[in-house]
Structure to design on (634 residues):
């Protein structure tokens, strides 16, 4: 997946709170200088995973390996890892510069060194001139920047960010996404980023880890996760998609809603049930009877760049994106290019069953 | 308009209370303080704080109050930190355990301490059982300090506890994340953020400790004279209303001068460095 050296390895990590198992035998490898995003719905165990890496939570079983060393029992203050907390967690009794200097003062750095580092960090996060301000006189976005500056002055090997942009409004969030990527490239350190926002994950990451209910569903580059989701959960969570229970007739031929489609996947056996994912933008619309499946447009919404349309074929409702508008009530037909049909195994084991969606 | 009127109406009982039980007695005491028994104006009563016996009692009171306040602080912080680590139900249990004695009449609490500390009391009973030598604390200044500290401890602990429990876990975790150990988290984050609680604790403990004459009488056996004892004697035994009032007023002036120093500091911590 990556030719960079391995930095962190979570080995068979499990964690429960009371009776609820939050992480179940999690195995995760993070490489040096990667921007890794843990992506999943709220409550799936992202924060817990991050807290185990940061040293705020101890796994019930399993090990945390950092640069080849077992650091499972090492407390947070002894790990070369810093965190940007979701709610900023700035020290309310300290000025911006005192907040930023906190870690350096603890490590007894010289006055000049600290001064230099504060200047550098505040410049990096575009907060020059804010040195003497108190945190509560700053906006949410500014506080978030102070939190980032406070973490990076310590030159950690890894920066953990737990939904750092969650509390910001859309425009500021998009701005900060670019800022974070810029900082990551400038600092050359590993970022482990937690979010439930799939767009954010796909925009920013080198590597995305999709989680659900304490399991890793899929790991890979944003492109791969989007184009080749491995199961219905990932397909559904990453963007809109059409997920259809179908039958694999044989290699490279799948029966979708009673019509046989050519595809590129092999190795699923013959006459086996599978799930098929087709992205809304990959569907080709044609006048009635010219395409493979006939249907009727039931709904049209203009989305700025494209139209989003709902099309009924039999009793299945497709979501289709197209730059050309079709009138509601009109008849159309649907075709799909073979390489835009993504075949997935149907969840079988009990573990995967938990993940099944009501599609 | 109407809501303003309503506000006045609602605060009427409070105004009545203040006038009846604070302002009128204060006025009476002030009048006595600045007059002699014949009704002539004089400063002698107020200045009597400066004479040898009263001055000494005043200094002893300051010392006792200082020691007791310090002891309360030193006991309160470890306790608060321990409670912070507990889960909700056990911390609630400990708090109730602490507050429970406050519902008992304070004279009873002191009498209980007398039973514990007296020469043939509970403490010495246990020491004898353990084969240790007896201690004779009753009727000494040490007993006064123990009694006063015990009496006012909740007033120190509760405001500190309130301030500390308002510190979010995120903030202490951030300190830890940046390299602070347990001591560093306390000195750099928890303690500074608890200062408003500490200051209100000090004001609630220091001033009453100076004047807790009942504790000095019962546990100190009358050997330790606090300024409160002297004032009480002037009023109750010698019927020296003028002298008693004069000493009260000068004590009050002293407190009015010193309190703003501590209270003002806690206010300043909150907002001074804004902008
Ligand atoms: N300290 C805790 N005590 C009890 N339950 C917890 C604790 N921390 C997390 N949980 C539970 O663990 C699950 C996963 O939480 P979390 O890791 O915060 O999820 P995420 O960050 O993905 O939203 C949730 O159901 C949450 O309620
Ligand atoms: Mg979370």
């Amino acid at each position: 997946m990556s030719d960079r050296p391995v930095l962190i390895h979570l080995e068979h990590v499990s964690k429960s709170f009371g009776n609820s198992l939050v992480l179940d035998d999690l195995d995760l490898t993070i490489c040096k200088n990667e921007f890794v995003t843990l992506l999943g719905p709220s409550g799936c165990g992202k924060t817990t995973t991050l807290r185990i890496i940061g040293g705020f939570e101890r796994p019930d079983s399993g090990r945390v390996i950092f640069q080849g060393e077992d650091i499972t029992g090492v407390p947070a203050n002894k790990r070369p890892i810093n965190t940007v907390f979701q709610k900023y967690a700035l020290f309310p009794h300290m000025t911006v510069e005192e907040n930023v200097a906190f870690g350096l003062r603890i490590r007894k750095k010289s006055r000049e060194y600290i001064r230099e580092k504060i200047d550098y960090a505040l410049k990096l996060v575009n907060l020059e001139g804010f040195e003497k301000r108190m945190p509560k006189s700053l906006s949410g976005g500014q506080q978030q920047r102070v939190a980032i500056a406070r973490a990076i002055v310590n030159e950690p090997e890894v920066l953990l960010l737990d939904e750092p942009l969650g509390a910001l409004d859309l425009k500021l969030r998009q701005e900060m996404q670019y800022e974070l990527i810029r900082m990551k490239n400038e600092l050359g350190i590993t970022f482990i980023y937690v979010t439930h926002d799939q767009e954010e994950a796909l925009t920013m990451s080198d590597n995305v880890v999709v989680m659900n209910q304490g399991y890793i569903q899929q790991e890979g580059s944003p492109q791969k996760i989007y184009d080749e989701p491995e199961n219905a959960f990932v397909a559904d969570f990453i963007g809109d998609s059409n997920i259809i229970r179908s039958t694999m007739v044989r290699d490279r031929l799948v029966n979708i809603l009673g019509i046989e489609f050519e595809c590129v996947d092999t190795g699923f056996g013959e006459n086996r049930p599978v799930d098929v994912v087709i992205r809304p933008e990959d569907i080709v619309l044609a006048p009635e009877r010219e395409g493979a499946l006939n249907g009727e447009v039931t709904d049209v919404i203009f989305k700025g760049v494209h139209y989003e349309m709902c099309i009924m074929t039999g009793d299945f409702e497709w979501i289709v994106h197209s730059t050309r508008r079709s009138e509601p009530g009109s008849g159309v037909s649907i075709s799909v290019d073979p390489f835009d049909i993504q075949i997935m195994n149907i969840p079988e084991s009990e573990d995967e069953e938990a993940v099944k969606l009501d599609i | 308009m109407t809501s303003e009127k309503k506000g006045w109406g609602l605060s009427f009982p409070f105004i009545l209370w203040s006038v009846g039980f604070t302002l009128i007695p204060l006025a009476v005491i002030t009048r006595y303080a600045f007059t002699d028994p014949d009704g002539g104006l004089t400063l002698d009563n107020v200045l009597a704080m400066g004479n040898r016996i009263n001055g000494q009692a005043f200094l002893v009171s300051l010392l006792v109050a200082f020691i007791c306040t310090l002891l309360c602080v030193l006991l309160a912080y470890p306790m608060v930190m321990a409670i912070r680590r507990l889960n909700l139900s056990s911390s609630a249990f400990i708090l109730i355990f602490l507050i429970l004695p406050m519902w008992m009449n304070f004279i009873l609490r002191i009498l209980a301490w007398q039973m514990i500390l007296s020469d043939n009391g509970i403490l010495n009973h246990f020491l004898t059982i353990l084969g240790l030598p007896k201690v004779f604390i009753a009727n000494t200044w040490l007993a006064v300090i123990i009694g006063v500290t015990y009496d006012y401890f909740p007033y120190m602990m509760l405001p500190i506890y309130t301030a500390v429990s308002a510190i979010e876990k995120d903030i202490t975790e951030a300190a830890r994340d940046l390299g602070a150990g347990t001591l560093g988290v306390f000195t750099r984050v928890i303690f500074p953020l608890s200062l408003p609680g500490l200051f209100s604790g000090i004001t609630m403990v220091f001033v009453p400790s100076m004047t807790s004459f009942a504790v000095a009488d019962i546990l100190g056996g009358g050997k330790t004279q606090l300024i409160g004892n002297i004032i009480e004697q002037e009023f109750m035994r010698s019927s020296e209303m003028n002298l008693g009032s004069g000493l009260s007023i000068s004590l009050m002036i002293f407190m009015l001068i010193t309190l703003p120093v501590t209270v003002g500091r806690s206010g300043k911590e909150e907002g001074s460095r804004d902008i």
In short: The domain at 54-242 of chain B is CATH 1.10.3720.10 (MetI-like fold).
